[in-house]
UniProtKB/TrEMBL annotation:
Native source organism of the sequence: Paenibacillus glycinis
Protein's name according to its UniProt entry: Histidine--tRNA ligase
Cellular compartment(s): Cytoplasm
Subunit text: Homodimer.
Domain Aminoacyl-transfer RNA synthetases class-II family profile: 8-312
GO MF term list: histidine-tRNA ligase activity
Main location: cytoplasm
Recorded name of the encoding gene: hisS
Length: 416
């Protein structure tokens, strides 16, 4: 039988994977400039971490986790998101003992058993950041600005920022009663998910795509904010305005995770079907304590890389030649081919991307290979050139050909 990849997964082939490398390179450079440092956590964690950290009433924990029992009879789960594992590492390794703010980022695969649709996979990839140790709303604004800069620098257009305040647990308790008062008269006509959420986590009802149109008159959580939450939210808006980050306030925005407090935000973009959310995040002041650490505040984001790449493709973004072979070496004759091998290694060790033929093809076929690679130069070495200690270097854009000394080949390519 011929094997196929599991449903909801992808093969990233040469020609496509270079786009991913570009996107990841931009993410790493953005983090360097914002002083976030990389963390790499296990691909699976104890299941209880996600139940406690993400929230038992979330769709992630209730429906979507890949959970298994190992040979030590431990319940383990492939990571469905990055924050819980990063915070676990922060606590376990006592990073909270450092005098400065802890600013972390990660890039890697996550796993959720979701219904397949455009831009949504069961193995997907996230770029995330976490900043722990400060309650300053300026830090919330910095995290939002980092994500906005990432989308701008990979070349996406028309990315929108939506923000909201989801308050504190005390604020949400007050809002919960107001919301239930609005929802109860329509309970029997809502979808089954909404009916279940009303009993367990009514705020999640506002996240429903099926019944969203029915909640236009629902109470706004912004009307239930206490003075602390209002002050934090107003300060956030002032910082974003000062940073020239355009945003809109969406009082229906609640996000799908239980650990958020105060700030919640999302990035929106059109072009990948019905789903327009490409990333998001928020503040989570109680999460560190919930998973056994000291009561340290935090704020972070997670951006979906599948959706980022899909948007780049749908918008027709022109990316640089991400896999650029600079020179193709052609050896004509046995002695010239041996010298080509030496030259090839020397060029590569000088940082120049170079290639040659290994299939015994004639010169015409080798030149076609050079064209397919879109090289800047071809370097042709025959027995006569070898005896003179030089090689023919052809500029593929202009057609100009010159002869250069064998030992000066790298300098000639670099200087052009």
């Amino acid at each position: 039988m011929a094997f196929q990849k599991p449903p909801g997964t992808q093969d990233f082939l040469p020609g496509a994977v270079e786009k991913w490398q570009f996107v990841e390179r931009v993410a790493r450079d953005i983090c360097r400039r914002f002083n976030f440092r990389e963390i790499r956590t296990p691909m699976f964690e104890m299941t209880e971490l996600y139940k406690r950290g993400v929230g038992e009433t979330t769709d992630i924990v209730e429906k979507e986790m890949y959970t298994f029992t190992d040979r030590g009879d431990r319940s383990l789960t492939l990571r469905p998101e990055g924050t819980a594992g990063a915070v676990r590492a922060y606590v376990e390794n006592k990073l909270y003992g450092e005098p400065d703010l802890t600013k972390l980022y990660y890039i890697g695969p996550m796993f959720r058993y979701e219904r397949q649709q455009a831009g949504r996979y069961r193995q997907f990839h996230q770029f995330g950041v976490e900043a722990l140790g400060a309650v300053d709303p300026a830090l919330d604004a910095e995290v939002i600005a980092l994500g906005y800069a990432f989308y701008a620098e990979v070349g996406l257009k028309d990315v929108r920022v939506e923000i909201n305040s989801v308050g504190t647990p005390a604020v949400r308790a007050v809002f919960r009663e107001k919301l239930l008062g609005f929802l109860e008269p329509m309970r029997d006509t809502l979808c089954k998910d909404c009916q279940a959420r009303m009993d367990r986590n009514p705020l999640r009802v506002l996240d429903c795509k099926t019944d969203q149109h029915r909640f236009a008159e629902a109470p706004s959580i912004l009307d239930s904010l206490d003075e602390e939450c209002r002050t934090h939210f107003e300060s956030l808006k002032q910082h974003l305005t000062g940073m020239n980050i355009p945003f809109t306030v969406n009082p229906r925005l609640v996000r799908g995770l239980d650990y958020y407090t105060h700030t919640a935000f999302e990035y929106k973009a059109e072009g990948i079907g019905a789903i327009d959310t490409v990333g998001g995040g928020g503040r989570y002041n109680g999460l560190v304590a919930d998973i056994g650490g000291p009561d340290q505040p935090g704020v972070g984001l997670g951006l979906g890389l599948e959706r980022t790449v899909m948007l780049l493709e749908s918008q027709g973004a022109e990316l640089e030649n991400l896999h650029q072979v600079e020179v193709y070496l052609v050896g004509l004759g046995e002695a010239a081919e041996r010298e080509t091998t030496r030259l090839l290694q020397g060029l590569r060790m000088r940082g120049i991307a170079a290639e040659r033929d290994y299939q015994g093809r004639k010169m015409k076929a080798q030149m076609k290979s050079a064209d397919r690679l879109r090289v800047r130069f071809t370097a042709i070495l025959g027995d006569d050139e070898l005896q003179r200690g030089e090689i023919a270097l052809k500029n593929m854009a202009t057609g100009e050909q010159t002869f250069v000394a064998l030992d000066a080949l790298a300098d000639a390519i670099r200087g052009s």
